[in-house]
Specification:
The protein is α/β, with parallel strands linked by helices and 316 residues long. The chain is built from nine helices and 14 strands. The protein has a six-stranded parallel sheet with strand order 3-2-1-4-5-6, with helices on both faces. A three-stranded antiparallel sheet has the order 7-10-11. Helix 1 links the parallel strand 1 and strand 2. The longest helix is centred in the C-terminal third of the chain and has 19 residues. The mean pLDDT is 95.
Length: 316
């Protein structure tokens, strides 16, 4: 692989994704594309001038032609969600934007892996597969990766432990019908419901009492709080995108909750939503279907029906 990435969209999310990739040294070359060429040029120059103190990444404003030979194309372009607005409300507008972009980028980067960030991410991931014919393993939506790190952040606070030792996932739609797979959550291999009793000194690591409902509300509402406070969320999603990019370039497979078009997993087909996926150089190598509780399985199917209901109402 050439370690070349194209980022489409130079708004707050796209620019922060590009900066984070440079700051972490994840890639060697970044092409930044936006309909507002001056904005893309300004962002590319600003980031490029930071490289002496970061990593020697080649970053520049380009056109679709410059995306040739990209390993990964990251699509962030679309209308952003406004305070109080549902992600689903954005659907048709952003689908139309995608339909105008897709033929141009696939023409010049036919063998790339496509990573969707723009919302509604599950819908756009599905639509892109349908209108381009790019195999589903090469089309990935960030899905519930962001939801999941919000969950891990909150649980780490409640359990007073390192965020990296919390293994917990949000699955389903990246939206209102998402759910926490509590049955699969643990801290360093100890199931959450057994963790406090496993502590030999309960005063050494204080566990703050909580309910599942409180944590799920935090996960679902914190994005809206950020948008209301600063207009957009971009640090968390940039970190999520960087994790996915690093997973693609890694020599070992990484398991992440990303959105992909399902083909029978959990009895669900012909819709994109998040389950656990093994990611590597070829994109989604395989999906995983860890055992869910009956309630969680019902919620997974509900997410699928919610998304299929939206797809039935839009023009693809």
């Amino acid at each position: 692989m050439k370690n070349k990435v194209t980022v489409i969209g130079a708004g707050s999310v796209g620019a922060t994704v590009a900066y984070t990739l440079v700051a972490t040294g994840s890639v060697a070359e970044i092409v930044l594309i936006d309909v507002n060429e001056a904005k893309a040029q300004g962002e590319a120059l600003d980031i490029r001038q930071a490289t002496p103190y970061l990593h020697p990444v080649k970053i520049y404003c380009g056109t679709y032609e410059d995306a040739a030979d990209s390993d990964i194309v990251i699509i962030t372009s679309g209308v952003g969600r406004k305070p109080g607005q549902s992600r689903i409300d954005l659907t048709q507008t952003n689908v139309n934007i995608l339909k105008s972009i897709a033929p141009q980028i696939v023409k010049h980067a036919p063998n790339a892996l496509y990573l969707f960030v723009a919302n509604p991410v599950d819908i756009l991931t599905y639509v892109f597969c349908k209108i381009t014919g790019v195999p589903r393993n090469r089309v990935i939506g960030t899905g519930t990766t962001l939801d999941s790190i919000r969950l891990r952040t909150r649980l780490s606070e409640l359990y007073s432990v390192n965020q990296k030792q919390v293994h917990a996932y949000v699955l389903g739609e990246h939206g209102d019908s998402s759910f926490v797979a509590w049955s699969a959550a643990d801290i360093s291999g100890v199931p959450l419901d057994e963790y406090e009793n496993a502590l030999t000194d309960k005063d050494a690591l204080k566990v703050t009492p909580y309910t599942h409902e409180e944590v799920e509300e935090y996960v679902k509402k914190s994005g809206g709080q950020i948008i209301a406070g600063k207009g957009a969320t971009f640090y968390g999603i940039a970190a999520s995108v960087t994790q996915i990019v690093n997973s693609i370039y890694s020599s070992a497979y990484t398991i992440l909750p990303v959105s992909t078009v399902l083909d029978g997993e959990y009895g669900i087909s012909d819709v994109a939503l998040s389950t656990l996926c093994a990611i590597g150089n070829d994109g989604v190598v395989t999906t995983l279907t860890p055992k869910l509780s009956d309630d969680e399985l019902a919620k997974m199917h509900n997410s699928a029906e919610v998304l299929k209901g939206v797809l039935a109402q839009i023009e693809i």
